Each structure stands twice: as structure tokens, then as C-alpha cells.
Amino acid sequence: MIRYEHPLNERVRTLMRLEDLFVRARFFAAQDAAPDHHAALLSLFEATDVAARGDLKTDILQELERQRQLLGALRGNRQIDRQTLEQLLREIDTVSGQLLAQAGKSGTHLRENEWLMAIKQRTGIPGGVCEFDLPAFHYWLHQDGAARRNDLATWIEPFEPLRAGAAIVLRLLRENGRASRPTA
To answer: Model-level pTM?
Structure first.
């Protein structure tokens, strides 16, 4: 059974796009083959473009704070598993702190890397990442898989607070939403 989600606002659509891009980037980065690492890099470039929206980090922080206040009000409710609630509140506080500690927009570390931006610029051109157009990129692709995975992990890691914040918001929305089973 395939599950389809249809968010009703652009904020949630953006979070779902990021979620998908981070899943793809992490999946391909964990592989060994050069084409997989190329795909991981493309997913990171797309995540950088999505994360470039100036108010994204603020939106996530505001939503995490809203959820923290709503959940904090449940502390006195005997029907709520206190341990689970406290764990979720600690998770929200940790991720909020990490997001606040990040200076500037998410993905700045990639945008400031001239080598990566040269690759990104060529990805918009069909066949634009051929070895004769980007010899340094092809040199990197022919490096040992472990070295490429290490580079990818370095480029993915600064996105972690954004990924984690989006994941919390989406998880809370999904757990509190109502599913329906229409037949098409």
C-alpha cells in the first residue's frame, strides 16, 4: 500500500521536500559507487536550494517552540506518559538550541565552497558534469569510496539540526493527524 500525503500549506510542503532530499542524500552517501555519491551530492545541492529560503529556520524554530508550549501544558495530565513527554521536550530543546547556534542560512557551508558551486552550476546543464567540463569532480569520483563518504558526511553534517527540526515537526503533525483510506 502506498501512502500519499497532501499537505495543505507551503510550509509543510517545504519540510516534506527537505525530508525527502535528506533521505536521498543519506542513502546515496552510504553507498560505495561513484554514481551514488554523485546522486548524494545532487540531493545536497537541492537541499541547499530549499534551505536557502530565508525564513525556513525561523519557521522551524517557531513551530518547535509552539509544540514545546503545547506539550509542556500536558505535564500535569495523568493520562500522558511522562517519560515519553519529557524525552520529546528534551529533543525539541536540543534541536532548537542547535538551530539557534547556527549562524546564517542552512547550506552556507556548501555555497561558500567554490569547487562545489562550480559542480552545482554545471548540474543544470544536461550532460554538464562530463569529465572534460569538470575534471576535478571526476578526479574526486575516482577517489576511494571511503574518502568520498567522508567528504559527503562532512557536507551533510551541518544540515543535521535543520533535518532534525523538520523531522520533529513532521512527526508531530503525522502523529496528530487523521488518516483516511480513499480508493482511487
So the answer is: 0.87
